[in-house]
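Worked example (supplementary).
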Amino acid sequence: MAAAGEASKFSEEAYAYPMTGGDGPNSYAKNSTLQRGAGDAAKELLNEAAEKLDIDILSSSNTFHIADLGCSVGPNTFFAVENIIEAVKFKFQNQGLNSQIPEFQVFFNDHTQNDFNMLFRSFSQNRQYYAAGVPGSFYGRLFPDASVHFFHSSYALQWLSRVPKEVVDKNSPAWNKGRIHYSNSTDEVVRAYEAQHAEDMECFLNARAQEIADGGVTVLLIPGRPNGTPHSHPVGNLSFQLIGSCLMEMARKGVVSEEKVDAFNIPVYAMTPEELEAAVEGNGRFSLEKMETLPHVSTHGTVSVTQLVVSHLRAALEGRITQQFGEEIVDELFESYLKKLEEQPSILATGTAIIFLVVLKRKAN
Amino acid sequence: MAAAGEASKFSEEAYAYPMTGGDGPNSYAKNSTLQRGAGDAAKELLNEAAEKLDIDILSSSNTFHIADLGCSVGPNTFFAVENIIEAVKFKFQNQGLNSQIPEFQVFFNDHTQNDFNMLFRSFSQNRQYYAAGVPGSFYGRLFPDASVHFFHSSYALQWLSRVPKEVVDKNSPAWNKGRIHYSNSTDEVVRAYEAQHAEDMECFLNARAQEIADGGVTVLLIPGRPNGTPHSHPVGNLSFQLIGSCLMEMARKGVVSEEKVDAFNIPVYAMTPEELEAAVEGNGRFSLEKMETLPHVSTHGTVSVTQLVVSHLRAALEGRITQQFGEEIVDELFESYLKKLEEQPSILATGTAIIFLVVLKRKAN
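After joint prediction of all chains, the assembly is encoded as:
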């Protein structure tokens, strides 16, 4: 079966840096309110997407299959899935098909290194769906042909499948020496990231085009940058640059080795709406039913925004940083990062941040 | 959706004592060769079971769904699944349906407390199927209606869904004071275990009858006892009794509290072929296509059988014992157990051990 084999060409090791698991103070579960803000804003979008489902979507089955790609450990994935189920049920009711409301089976996907044990232990006993975990990269095949009716992916597609090889190759003109991200780097490094992103989007859309059932929909929430703005603008990219400068400072002090900083890159890419459209067009098998751009809204309670940004960044990066530099430097690194932010709150203020809300529908064969 | 809700009536806590995870020397992964011996013996059975599949099994889908119930962390589950896929492919080829060989999606099920992270990290990159993990008790619903074509469960159905409440209730005539298993206990305790087993089998078969696709098959490998033999005979039961006597000795020495021993029971039940037949008949929705009884064969290499028995028992029980008595007593307990076995190798020699190999087929609606 060539299809399942395809996944193996993606080395899990290359990109398998999970969000921080467990439920400690630095865990992803406790530090994903920014993502949840977007999720709430997207609830209406899920209704619109469900409206676009073919009404005979279940012609060959009485189970509606939902997959959340890049689910992490919860709880945002649970809110998203519940909203999708509500939207699909509403679609059926609205069409007078109350008696045909299907059963739901939900596939929670993330990297093999994700903390699925924690995800599974967070499942509600009263959930109204059958649940399964699917480990593996969403840049490869994860599901059988034509088997998923509703794909969802929120805050995941900004992660590349891997660090582009050239940027950690000393002998390449794209070697990213002294930096950990493309957004403040040379044209060669930027091009290497752009090429990786284009290849990844092609793989993502190819895999989904095969896996999605006829008449099914795909909803994507992607943090990115506005058309025509430079890579140095997005606030997320500024954060990575700042982390990079903290690491270089620690290298100068001898706390970490400079070689290790040179070999460390964050495989996150801020795409534009145009780049997404081009990928969809290049793939050719989806129609772009909707694309909306929202400003990135942070929902914060009593903690300061700065602290919140640091917490989010730490939840996202701690695994990678620990793997590269060891656990012992993590606290110092993020303290130094927070200090810089508190001293110059304007560092991130120039940054932009947008989220695209995208609905794709598989074209008829 | 009542179906998914049903699962919630089973308290996960009540039975969620997983096999020892990880891959250390006492882990299940390194101590399941006895189970694998039976798996090899059962390969032929899987071929026979596949033969019994309706040939139009996939009328409504091009994916063949397999579920392994009580999969633990591998590797035995992988061998079983590969054998099933081979057998199903052979069936298609044999019928001249080479071009219609389906894709396979495999659901690996075990308790929520199972180490799914380890299971997922053990997946072969070259596997010829799509894989998903499904956490939850197989005594409740796990899958949508009529969605699974081939159920498999090996060395799992001897575990009850929970310790019968009465046996840890001081005020019940079935209080199992000073013992940790029913097999050397009073009639009241035996009846409590028997009743729990009957209820569990009813739940298991009810759930599977709803989940299995028309024309699908269920293969069960169950360690049990021969018809007409007493509960005190199976070698597994003798092991539990011996562990119980070691615990009581430790209680007398003050190493563990006697109250904790009284509150500790092992929810494992050795059923007979007759009990299984009665459960299938009571359920009424499966035909018993085959039941074969094999002697329990141990496949051992260079380690002594005694050591092997201890290792297996430890892998199966360590989680429960740690939870009840604390980690610090585990080594002492199993050393004392091993010593008793070495001093009197005949202790287990009187025991019997059989495995049933069972093929069930869903009756037409």
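Two points are worth noting when inspecting this output. Residues 1-17, 298-303 of chain B have pLDDT under 50 and may be disordered. Chain B touches chain A at residues 1, 3-5, 7-8, 12, 60-63, 103-105, 107, 112-113, 115-117, 120-121, 123, 125-135, 141-147 (CB under 8 Å).
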